[in-house]
Amino acid sequence: MFASAQLPQTLDKSDFKELEPQLRDDLLKAQLEMIERKDFSVIILVDGLDGAGKGESIARLYGWMEARHLVCNAYSEPSKEARQHPPFWRYWRDLPAKGETAVVFGSWYQPILRARIYGELDDDGFQREMMKVRRFEEMLANEGVLILKFWYVLPADVQKQRLKAIEKKKAARHVLADWSTLKNRDKASQTGEEIILATSKGYAPWFVIPSEDAEYRDAALAQTITRSINLKLADGTAKQVAAPPVVGGLEKRSALDAIDLSASLDKKTYEKRRDDLQEMLSEISDTKKFAKRGMVLVFQGNDAAGKGGTIRRVIRPLDPRIYQVHPISAPSDEEKARPYLWRFWRRLPRRGHVAIFDRSWYERVLVERVEGYASHEEWLRAYDEINSFEAELVGHGYLVCKFWLSISAEEQLRRFKAREETSYKQHKITDDDWRNRLKWDQYAIAAGDMIDRTSTRDAPWKLVSSEDKRHARVEVLQTICDRLKEEL
């Protein structure tokens, strides 16, 4: 998850200096209005890998906000008194009053992280702890607490350098949480992902902050807090308002930016690889092992990215009796009268069969988000609903392969014009395609968020350059064959 957080996200120091006065002004105005109105309180929970600069980031935040209405609560091992009470007692005790803000280090997630990483908490125990956390945070939200949770990430090599520097200082305030140091980095990252998947809700969202660049990190933190407080203030009631899942106002790279659109194949190489992979897919789909599984293929991407042509190359080697392609458009009146996932549940394949979705449930967080068909709260909570949906499919034995086919805006324009000029392709271009093109940047942001929030270990996204259609078709076939060989 959160592939974009692993990309270099930077803010030049001179640009930061220019931006800083506005950051401070906006943040302070939001805080002062919250203090005056006293409609809700704020909890800013800071977690993530050691060396990511959590303390430095909050120190700067103290310089920007009204410190008299800001408190920092840091938790380590529970005291003798705390052990005489329920585990959440010390967090209840320190809850900020309405109008006040509390920054939380070493939160209710720390004991769970530690126990999970050290093998003291099995899967069932972990799920029980997650349920307790969700209940606790939902209760706080219902009582007028705005909960903002930040997970700081760093590339491994940068973390290593920083931890060495911290160890040399031997300063009392730099006490390392051993669960998140280098020797446990992989376990910490995996457990962090599990926690974020389980507890990022509309009433208590997680924000993953790339922390290699201090200026970008702190600007992202401040802007996210400001936007979230302003959303809550605009609501006008004590009801929780879902905070935005992306940082606004900064140039933020998404996972889409990492796709190499120059990838291509010559015709001869393409035909050889295509034929080999189609033969492999035919053989695998005819095995007894495959007959015991179901497969769901999801195709999303830019308009005119070649989803239909790629799907035709996938189904060509398959027995027509075992697959069905579902082209997804606007929901019918019958479908609108039911939960949005209903129309996909009813199209799921039985064991030994394949369902191919040309667009899918992800339209909830793409078209419905950008065009306003789904409310802010509806599309924000859809990430968790989709992850749960796909986890249930995988748990039942389905193999879920998801593809994002990506092209440049220039290539899309060329393909649109070619469709208009070719009689047998004119049906592929509509007024909606041209309207959507005008919102290219909005769709790019929505797609980046979607990939970050729904690329899980069980159902990862495969990002495919489709600037060259031959490359895209082979890449998709290769991915499907590889996943089948791994799973069967």
Range of helix content: 40-55%
User: What strand order characterises the main sheet?
Assistant: 2-3-1-4-5
- Total helix count? 19
CATH class of the largest domain: Alpha Beta
GO molecular function, one term: polyphosphate:AMP phosphotransferase activity
Catalytic activity: [phosphate](n) + ATP = [phosphate](n+1) + ADP
Keywords: ATP synthesis
GO biological process, one term: ATP biosynthetic process
3D architecture notes:
With 488 residues, this protein is of the alpha/beta class. The chain folds into two domains: 3-253, P-loop containing nucleotide triphosphate hydrolases (Rossmann fold, 3-Layer(aba) Sandwich), CATH 3.40.50; 257-487, Rossmann fold (3-Layer(aba) Sandwich), CATH 3.40.50.300. Helices cover 49% and strands 13% of the residues. Strand 2, helix 3 (89-93) and strand 3 form a beta-alpha-beta unit. The protein starts with 12 loop residues before the first helix and ends with a helix. Mean pLDDT is 88; it is low at 236-249.
